[in-house]
Amino acid sequence: MSDKIQQPWFKLGIDCSNAYRPGFERYFDYKSTKFDVWVVEKSDPKFYACLRKSWVDSIESKFGLELDYFLLFYRAPHFQCPTAHIDGSDQGIAYRDYGTGFYTFGVNFVTDADDNTEMLWYNKTRKDDGIVLNRNLSAEVNYKEWLMSDIQDLLIDRKVIGTELTLVDTTRAHNIFMRDKPRWGFTLRFKLNSLDLSTWERAVEYFKPHIKYD
Ligand SMILES: [Fe+2]
Question: Is residue 3 part of a domain?
């Protein structure tokens, strides 16, 4: 396994500044919360009220995959989640089960052109003991979590996601380091059908033709 594969993020060279429709926030009840996650299925009218169809079409044809849904994450300025997590837990699935109960990657962007928040990854996987908290989020996602104070020494990498589409590892514990602005983050999830992307390495291999190396 090469060092490149172990890296938990890869830039895909696709600009997302026009991917979303300004004002999409109005469809989500975020004003009284510091952190929430919503899921929007492709069949939901909100899907194309938030994302531009022309952009979605271009992404689908580029990757040869059909979009299934997106997750939308809101964090208030300076909100620091006390835990890092992996998507999915021992007691349930990460929103939708593709056969493994875990989703191994996200295809992400943030709406703020001047995004200076960072995604952080830690060396904990689903095999490691963690905690399962009831987060009461809008989307029925569930997570296996670790207190940040317990894993500080296990940091693998940190990266600003920004408006460039980025493939991110969701098999290792991750969190967001917030700064002084709100953060709206989209995660695209695709229909995988019989495609086996059940490990981070397989996901990286699939997206390799689109990865932009510095
Ligand atoms: Fe996650």
Answer: no
